Amino acid sequence: MTATESYFSEGTQEMGPRKGASAAELLRESGAVLRLSEAEAARLADLPPEEQEQTMILNMGPQHPSTHGVLRLMLELEGETILRTKPVIGYLHTGMEKTGEVLTYAQGATNTTRMDYASPLFNELVFSLATETLLGIQDDIPERAQWIRMLLCELNRMSSHLLFLATNGMDLGAVSMMIYGWREREETLRLLEMITGLRMNHNFIRPGGVAADLPDGWRDAVLRVLDLVEPRLDEYEVLMNGQPIWRERLQGVGVITAEEAIALGATGPILRSTGVPWDLRKEQPYLRYDEVEFGVVVGAHGDCFDRYAIRLAEVRESMGIVRQILDKMPKGDYRIQDRKVTPPPRARIDESMEALIHHFKLFTEGFKVPEGEVYVAVESPRGELGCYLVSDGSSVPYRMHIRGPSFVNLQTLPHMLRGGMIADAVAVISSVDPIMGEVDR
User: 316-339 as b/e, with b when 16 or more CB fall inside 10 Å?
Assistant: First the structure.
């Protein structure tokens, strides 16, 4: 019995081999599961029996790191050529969207920050922006708080892309790139730890502003990291871009067209690699992005090399934005002075019973949000990160849904992998840069 004849259909009771069926019938039936095109199904069904038996189904994953977390791929192979792909998810499900319905708006950032753990500050930002829009205070957030949010997000974008450069190198056998990329990411995380108190899952961007003001010495610390990382990026290019093996493993591999990317809802570096200059910071400016200069980096071929090069260039663009933020950072409050949303200063709690009661009620009952619904989106390192919130007038969301770019971008894998070699599968998965915490939220 061949692997093709081991019929399976997820979601049904029938598992294992189905006796009495020809290979052609099995291919047509499994095509409904793996979304085999009519032309491919007809071609495979007309193959002689001895060639049909060479077609097999291979489970790749779920394991880390080659599938970047607990991602499982069902691959239909003809020899070493990939005919069809089905991403299978759900191995890391933590129910964060449902959990968001029992946490107050004040507690919400502690939940959302854990979805995309490589860029947690963007999750906190989009949840806070959605909550502020429902409250009607989106235009009252202090300028300093908005610039601090931008600073943190661009530093986080740098750390996320540096992590990609590290793991992308390791996935393709350039192990030294893992060491170098991880080294620079550590410097960025140390800076975020100095500002927020944590390396990851910060819970620092909150409805109404940020948790605390920037610490003493923050400006010098930021400049030190920027001056450290900038020449290292040049070294990356010397190490990787001019290497023939690196180019052969990436150029022309995992190609997707602009039409396919748009039809599948892909955003971020995947969409921009096809030549579409779509970046929410430019197209739908939020915070103060319309007050800084930066470019939208695009590719031309929609392949793995373009996606690698775009992320490398976006680190430089983020560094340029951060330098502008250093020059434009205003003075003032770091959070809105609205008693309904903002707790009293900690020092006041020891002096005033009224302040103590106010603090206690905010952190036990939370604040109530007017009825309504809203969708807000920001540009995360992986694309459009959206938050859909529905309020019923209570202190907890009636419904919360996150539009995770990693989840949507995984739809591109069957298109990128079709007709390619199984040896290129890891390179294509790596170029998508999926974070499974965001996929299986």
Answer: bbbbbbbebbeeebeeeebbbeee
3-state secondary structure of 78: strand
Token pair recorded at residue 158: 């740098």
Mean pLDDT of 254-260: 95
Contact yes or no for 202/196 (Cβ under 8 A): yes
d(CA 134, CA 196): 26
Q: In which residue are the tokens 């429902």 written?
A: 134
* CATH 1.10.645.10 domain position(s) in the chain: 96-439
- Other CB atoms within 10 Å distance of the CB of residue 32: 10
Those residues whose C-beta lies under 8 Å from the C-beta of residue 95, and which sit 6 or more positions away, are 441
Is pTM beyond 0.70? Reply is yes
State both tokens at 246. 């690196």
Tokens representing residue 200 in the block: 């990851």
The CATH homologous superfamily of the domain defined by 96-439: Cytochrome-c3 Hydrogenase, chain B (1.10.645.10)
User: What is the mean pLDDT of the segment spanning 373-383?
Assistant: 97
